[in-house]
Amino acid sequence: MDPGSRKTFDLSYYTLLLKRRGLFESDSALTTNSNTLAYINQLLQGSLQNFFSEFALSMEKMGQIEVKTGTTGEIRRNCAVVNS
């Protein structure tokens, strides 16, 4: 998802994020919190294999989020606003 390495999966997106060149506002928000900023810097200082391991763990964790279905959830017409 980053222009510098669009054919590879690596850490360069986080390097761009620290240069304020992130694609998504939610990603840019990671740099405004001291905990998440420290985590980004830790990832960048570590090995690529460590990044892959951390990414795999995060995907497993996201997979455990229960998806709301039926009347418990909604598809928003505008992502930033709850439907009325």
Structure in words:
It is a single chain. This protein has 84 residues and is mostly helical.
Short description:
The protein is mainly alpha-helical and 84 residues long. Helices cover 46% and strands 0% of the residues.
Mean pLDDT metric: 89
Number of helices: 4
Residues in β-strands, percent: under 5%
Radius of gyration: 16 Å
Keywords:
single chain, 84 residues, mainly alpha
Layout of strands and helices, then pairs:
Layout: H1 12-18, H2 25-28, H3 34-45, H4 48-63
